[in-house]
Write a sequence for this structure.
């Protein structure tokens, strides 16, 4: 019997959304990797991406948890955004953005060890010219919007 891969992919989306049910609050962390030229850009900084994302969560009515609270407890879910960029000699900048939700989980096969695991994720890849770096911020914004939409679908 052959089952199309799309069925499994659809199930994964459903399982990821289910993992958002009942969650009330989130922390947020952002990381950017790239050459000094890119990471020194005033627009694309972890602080800017982080503040932009936190504002989106707050505007969507989702409670944001401060870094201090997240660090103080392993029981607080948090969103983690990783942006990876490469500066090519021709002035183009390929990039990849991953957004993951980490939350506490128990590992039943390992004596119910409690740890954090990614239970929801999305991402994208793209390429921009140096003068279009703000498009990376827009792409990051779109991924947070995807999270917010899935969050509300899961909690209807």
């Amino acid at each position: 019997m052959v089952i199309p891969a799309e069925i499994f992919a659809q199930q994964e989306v459903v399982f990821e959304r289910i993992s958002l049910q009942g969650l009330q609050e989130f922390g947020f962390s952002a990381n950017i990797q790239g050459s000094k030229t890119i990471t020194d850009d005033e627009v694309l900084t972890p602080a800017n991406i982080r503040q932009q994302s936190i504002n989106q969560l707050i505007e969507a009515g989702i409670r944001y948890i401060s870094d201090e609270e997240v660090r103080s407890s392993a029981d607080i879910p948090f969103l983690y955004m990783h942006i990876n960029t490469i500066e090519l000699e021709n002035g183009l900048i390929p990039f990849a953005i991953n957004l993951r939700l980490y939350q506490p989980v128990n590992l039943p096969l390992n004596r119910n060890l409690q740890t954090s695991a990614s239970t929801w994720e999305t991402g994208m890849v793209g390429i921009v010219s140096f003068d279009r770096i703000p498009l990376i911020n827009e792409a990051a914004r779109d991924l947070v919007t995807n999270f917010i939409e899935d969050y509300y679908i899961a909690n209807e």
